[in-house]
Amino acid sequence: xxxxxxxxxxxxxxxxxxxxxxxNLWGCLLKYxxxxxxxxxxxxxxxxxxxxxxxxxxxxxxxxxxxFDKNTSYEIRRAIKDGVSTxxxxxxxxxxxxxxxxxxxxxxxxxxxxxxxxxxxLFITKAVYQDQDIVMHAYIRDHSxxxxxxxxxxxxxxxxxxxxLRAVTGRxxxxxxxxxxRFFKQLGFKIYDLGGYAYxxxxxxxxxxxxxxxxxxxxxLQETDYLPMSLTLLSFFKNxxxxxxxxxxxxxxxxxxxxxYDKWNIGYISQSPENLIHTQQxxxxxxxxxxxxxxYTADPFTANINGRLHLYYEELNFxxxxxxxxxxxxxxxxxxxxxxxxxxxxxxxxxPHMFTDSNRLYCIPETxxxxxxxxxxxxxxxxxxxxxxxxxxEGQAFVDSSIIHYNNKYWLFTSVSGEHGVLYxxxxxxxxxxxxxHKQNPIxxxxxxxxxxxxxxxxxxxxxMPSQNPKRCYGGSVMINEITTIxxxxxxxxxxxxxxxxxxxxxGLHTINFEDGLLIVDGKRKVLSAMGPFKKVIRKLKSLxxxx
Length: 548
Hints:
Shape: elongated
Mean pLDDT: 88
Radius of gyration: 28 Å
Structural class: alpha+beta
Distance between the termini: 61 Å
Strand content: 35-45%
Number of strands: 31
């Protein structure tokens, strides 16, 4: 039996009791029994059935493995051939960080410092592939009943485009279970509890989990959870309180939905590409520019011209409804100038992708409405003047195009407006040569990888691509993706980490770029205004005629 002290609503103390033979009658005020062996109704408790899959690990290991299905045994052997290794025992903090990263991809509740209450009974294992932790298991151990119970299981790379890596992760999970069973058997435990089983369910996801657990053999065990009446009453009042809280929250949300609108600004921080890849986070507090009066100042790109930093960005005013490319020769908007020479027709302009080649400065602005990707050269003596050199691509509404010279080729990454979950890739031997379509176009990628979020960059000969993550909202955050393979016929990547927005612009982040030791970003916040509804209507009407 295991006992864990806890608090309900951070106020009322109670104890969680695991694997008890039968609830104590007087415990109905302060004790919550989980997976009790009893099945009787006990006064003062709400009784709930709990099903789990258990494996008898007192028998020899070959007999345990004989109950695995053939595919599981094969996957275990494949994982060993893949070079997957297992580690018995690792830190709680490492597990919490790993699990919470996994929880984000699955929409699960994160675990917090409350998890440390299990510390005396916890044991954590992991599977490692190519020096990367890819699977972790957390167990609670009951020495009195010689039972070990899986509490949490987590694996990364579930949303990746790399099918081979996903397969290795699945095999590693099976191998880790097998090695865990062998390890706990050696320690003298008798029961290996797989941590629950969804009985009589029609949920497809739960059925998949059941099938995975069934593949290890074992037997189905019915136990009982006893929730004390005190916690039942607290839950009732909590739900009532939550109803009022939700009602107030709904009203506030309505006000924000009607009267708020997005306000974008630009900021910077001292950080190199190498430091970003090493730390996988922003290097401190962002320095935000004093806001301009316009609604949007976003998509920041920079260039060092004659030893001076120049900032190019999209400016948008809701009343105009069309973005414009602006330039300022310092990190403020006081001396901004409108770039000229991009288009004769008035169309929406944004994402002024800047890059240098052969001591010349070029820009590929987003001109999706014109259905082309065009290359412009910047006049170094008059940096607000652009001259159109040639059209690189045409025929579709290409957006957020980025180009990089890597492995002796020019690679052009782009997306098509309205097409989600796909990326278009083109290549050429020289900048003035025709760009050829990649063999895999359109390349299927995750929805948070299909649209560029700034210049690609190289660290340690590895190529990285920032991409926009729209899962929470438009421009919600930036994903950093490592391009593991890029050839004329093959493209593979994996998402390394996520960059989250930072207060006070904590509603969004969708462009990052490096220049002279600085990381330049944009950020979004919500602004409440009586003009909010009118601005939204105007923007909607404009967007119908000018989609981007």
